[in-house]
Amino acid sequence: MSESATIDQKLVQLWRQERRFYHVRGAARFLLWLIAMLLVDFLIDWGILYRVNSNLKLGLLLLIINVVVLGYVLWNEWLKHLKPFDPMIVALEVETRHPELASVLVSYTQFKEGDGGHGVSAELVEAMRQQARDLTRSIDFREVVDFAQIRKLLLACAGITLFFLVISINWQSHATSLLRRLAGVDATYPTRTQVLNVSGDLVVRIGAPVVVTAGAEGVIPEEGAIYVRPAEENSDWQRAPMQASGAANGLPTFERMLEEVNQDLLYYVRLGDDRSDTYRITPIPAPSISAVRIERTYLSYLRREADPTADLTGSVPEGTSLVWHLTTRTPVTRLQVLIGDKQIDADQEGDNLHWTFREDKVKRSFKYTFHWTEGISGQEFEYDDIEHAIEVIPDTVPKVELLQPTRDGLATVNRRVTLEARAQDDHGLAEAWLTYAVDEGEEKQIPIQTFKDKSSVTVDFVWDLKKTVPERKPGANLRYSVSVKDHCPNGDSHVARSMRRSLAVVDNERYVEWYREELARELAEVRRAEEAEKDAARALKQLKIQEGVQQ
Question: Residue 485 CB: number of other CB atoms within 10 A?
Fold first, then answer.
């Protein structure tokens, strides 16, 4: 190897020695930061996050912070100091340590052997290079790098690393749990107390209480705690004590009753220094109806088309047949209908969301309710529904009022009597007739009129005694009334009869005398009415004068 090659080689050796220095120093500082970050992570995760049952994503957040901080340390303390080889810079570092070289080494790196450029003769350049070889022959360039500068750093790094290895070995499970949690994996730290046999996820009947139990192993505390919060709200955990309730399977057991669970809840149990996973309590709501259709079929004599309704409570005519078609919002495994003291099972109509039941020809009003067996949880919780009512309106007997004649009277054997009656019925009248009897004889009927779709009518009829009452003779007494019937097929139960009047059959002279008496009586009533009207007019006039009212 030539002498010039020896100087170049020594410069390369120095550069490599510097890189080793920066590698050792950077690695030591990086390792110290790494250990420090892991210890801080453990204190934060085990001391805070794990105890408050935080989201596992916070472990990933810690990991990201670690990567950012360690990345900065890696660059600032290590990588940025690793420069590419530059003989000029390396020569300056040697001359800084050996000022007696008086820049001859720098000049050596600037002018190559045989270089006659820059207006300098080749002989002069060779003389300068030879001088550099002579002055640096006994110098070890690697002395520029002093590893003693980082001796304390290396000792500290070794001590802290040894300490970290010892606690990692002794607390191996803690270290493993920390690394898993930093990676976002659910893991638990070892504890002196172990929480076992927690009730876990629970499905309960809405509004019902629920008992949460948990067992303990290891160091048994005197009291535990359950932490609860609504599942759909980002609210604070509410703490409640859990009392020891005996033993199950040889393990001490703690329990707590939660009253009236009406919403989804999250909970976890803490016993001693251990805590359980987070579980969910899901209340199953009572089934409800999303759609209803009740088919109403009426008795034929009512002459009404069948029609549906969506009202669970309503009124129907007597004898109506009802068919309920229900659609529920959630699956139902069984639907029982309680109608008074009677219980019937509804039928599925295709699937467990559609149900149907019927009640034929209802006779009287009734109340009914549903008894549901839900089909969501698999536990078949049972629920009672609110009460509904169907009012059954009975078909009432028609009403009839005899308007004319207004009183009993006399008649001759040839008289024609004018009758006027007013009749009505809730579902329509069928027919009207005159019922009469002579003295105490058998009642006879004379048809008056038939009806189709009328519910209220005024009946006018001229009763010709000569044609219709052959038994008439002076001294006979006729008793009569107007009868009506509706369309109900229940025979005489739906026949109404007006007030009964009587006619006494007399000779012509007695009839004329009676007629004059009736006329005089009616005229007297008219006069009394006129006098009463005049008295009222005079009293009103006198009142106006007293009150000063203008005439």
Answer: 23
Superfamily of domain 193-284: Immunoglobulins (2.60.40.10)
Q: Would you say 331 and 352 are in contact if contact means Cβ atoms under 8 Å apart?
A: yes
Integer angstrom CA distances of residue 480 from 114, 234, 456, 466: 161, 87, 22, 15
- Tell whether domain 289-393 is in CATH 1.10.20.10: no
Q: Left, alpha or beta for 470 (phi > 0: left; psi -120 to 50: alpha)?
A: alpha
- Pairwise CA distance, residues 335 & 355, whole Å: 8
Task: For 285-350, give the DSSP string.
Answer: PPP-EEEEEEEEE--GGG----EEE--SSEEEETT-EEEEEEEESS-EEEEEEEETTEEEEPEESS
Beta partners for residue 63, in sequence order: none
Domain 399-506, what architecture?
Answer: Sandwich (2.60)
Where does the chain hold its CATH 2.60.40.10 domain(s)?
193-284, 289-393, 399-506
Q: How many residues does the chain have?
A: 551
Kindly report the pTM of this predicted structure.
0.61
Rounded to an integer, what is the distance from CA 527 to the centroid of its chain?
Answer: 80
* Model pLDDT for residues 363-390, shown as the tens digit of each residue: 999 999 999 999 988 888 999 999 999 9
What span, in angstroms and rounded, lies between the C-alpha atoms of 500 and 134?
161
